[in-house]
Design brief:
The protein contains six helices and nine strands. The chain is of the alpha+beta class. The protein has one domain: Hypothetical Protein Pfu-838710-001 (Beta Barrel). The chain has an eight-stranded antiparallel barrel with strand order 1-5-4-3-2-6-8-9.
């Protein structure tokens, strides 16, 4: 099934019928995320700890093959199936000159779901990311945003997370924002939350710019197209090298993916 067919089925037909009947949540969101290489620095953890935050470790499995343009699918913690559809750009976030990123609009459907199967690698086409997440939430109280318990709340709010994650032997870390609430307030809620979080300067030489702004799905897609493509037949691989053919896959154009 092609990506266009998948998107159409989420908007109408059996999947839309399923979402109306059994989805735990159907949300419109505004999101921005940065991903940087290496382990999460202690100074960054302390910077984030200025606000109340929960802590959890979990594994999320992302569908990476086939690549679905404008759609992200994952299994969250072996418990929830999440499908997210891209709805366009909401502009550029510029937080006090300390962070710049692309704000994206998404629609999310969540369903109860079981594990993909035994083992930690997942079946073909899926990639597992192990995450250690610190997460907080800001909600609108009167006319100002205040830190609140990290659990999801009703009304205008914005989740903020600082995560160290590992996939395929690579360790990375990420800072992300996800605003929920009325559609006409999503962008302003995210921007106001970012202004509050970035009121204190980032520690050390941390830079959060457009070059680091990407979702997990986009990061996985970039890593996948740049990775060596191994043949199951070693002789065929060696023969390809003797013929002077490239050992690496040709990178395809990246499309916007989810910030999840």
């Amino acid at each position: 099934m092609g990506a266009d067919s998948v998107r159409a089925n989420l908007s109408s037909g059996p999947l839309a019928h399923l979402s109306r009947r059994s989805a735990v949540a159907e949300l419109g969101t505004a999101e921005v995320r940065w991903i940087l290489p290496g382990q999460l620095d202690t100074a960054m953890v302390e910077w984030f700890a200025r606000f109340p935050a929960g802590l959890e470790s979990r594994e999320d499995a992302y569908l990476v093959d086939p690549v679905l343009r404008g759609l992200s699918v994952k299994i969250r913690g072996n418990q929830m199936l999440e499908a997210k559809m891209y709805h366009g750009s909401l502009g550029i976030l510029d937080a006090a000159g300390r962070a710049r990123g692309r704000i994206e609009a998404w629609q999310k459907w969540s369903f109860p779901f079981g594990p993909l199967g035994p083992g930690s690698a997942g079946p073909p086409g899926w990639t597992v990311i192990s995450k250690k997440r610190r997460f907080g939430r800001f909600r609108l109280a009167g006319r100002r945003l205040v830190a609140s318990p990290p659990e999801r709340t009703t009304g205008r709010s914005c989740a903020v997370e600082l995560t160290e994650f590992c996939s395929g032997g690579q360790t990375q870390w990420s800072l992300g924002f996800e605003a929920t609430g009325p559609a006409d307030s999503l962008c302003s809620t995210l921007q106001n939350t970012a202004a509050l979080v970035f009121a204190d300067a980032l520690p050390g030489d941390v830079e959060l710019g457009l070059g680091q702004c990407q979702s997990y799905a986009e990061w996985l897609s970039r890593r996948r197209v740049n990775a060596p493509r191994r043949s199951p037949d070693g002789d065929e691989s060696r023969a390809r090298q003797r013929r002077g053919q490239p050992r690496y896959a040709v990178a395809r154009n990246n499309e916007p993916q989810s910030a999840s």
